[in-house]
Structures are given as C-alpha cells and as structure tokens.
Amino acid sequence: MVGIGGSLRAGSQSERALNIALEGAAEAGAKTLAITGSELVLPFYDSGIPERTPEAERLIEAVRNADGLIIVSPGYHGALSGLIKNALDYVEDLRTDSRPYLDGRGVGLVAVAYGWQAAVTTLDQLRTITHALRGWPTPLGGSVNSAETKFDEAGGASDEKTVGTLRLIGRHVTEFAQAKRG
After folding, report:
1. Which residues contact 46 (CB under 8 A, 6 or more apart)?
2. Amino acid 96: pLDDT
3. Which member of 96, 104, 165, 175 has the greatest number of CB atoms within 10 A?
4. Rounded CA gap, 72 and 50, in Å?
5. For residues 157 and 2, what is the distance between their CA atoms, to the nearest angstrom?
C-alpha cells in the first residue's frame, strides 16, 4: 500500500490524515509506504523527457509495485495541490506496463482543506483523476474540514469520526487488494 500526500510543510494536516489512513491499512494487514512532502518535490512531469530523478523513479516504482494507494491532497483554492497533481502525472510512465496506470488497484482518496467547499471539490477532482488513470476509488472518500478538525502530533485528531473514516478508507483499500489477489 502506497500513500501519497501531504504538503511541503512537514507534519501538515494532510500528511497527518494520510498517516491515519495508512494505519487503517496496516491494521487490515497491508505493508505500507508513505511518500510525502519533500519526497514529492519532482520536476514538472514531461513525457518527452525519459530521464527521471531518483525521487521520481522511487515514486514510479512504488506505484508500479503497489496493490493499492491512498492519496491525500490539501485543497488549495478549491483544487488539489500542484505537488500532488504533478506526482500523479508521473503515473503516465506506467502506460506500457502489464498493469497500466492504476489499473486494477483500489485507491482511497482524501482531501483536507480549511472549509467544506475546497475539501469537497478537491475530493471530486481526485476521483476524476483516479478514474482517468483506471483506478478504483473506494466508495467512501474523505473530505476533512481542517477549520473544524485538528490533527495532532500523536497521530490522532480532534474528531473521532474523522479518524474512524480515515482508518476505514485504509481498510477498504486493503480489503479490495486482498480480494483482487484472492
């Protein structure tokens, strides 16, 4: 299970949400890997340039080998962050694989924004991108309003319902991957 998310700020609200979702995946039996923040600082994706940085190669290989993904983006001005969008653009490098793009993979999606409008529109964009990449978004997605829910350094949040939803998203992705293998 690969988690992609966060912002350039270490320990951001979206990174903390990702960690909770990955905990849910681990509780369901998944081996997890988080690729966050500074690890997502990649050159703008260009399919015409075949050379990749070591960070881009790590991301591509992690996604290639993953049975499921959890993607968490902050909502900036009603949209997903450029950092997360650029990382998802690198999935194009999987186009010629036997499992192209995100084909056959469950994908848990979460948007964290300061307000409901940006959280909901960002989640919708993540679903659209996942469909375009042939992934299977979990039925339950997460929209987190960080004006109301605060994540703490201990790995929790001020709203237990949000924590439960994030863990459930992680479990759903893991269960999808297990069912697909079985």
Report:
1. none
2. 97
3. 165
4. 27
5. 22
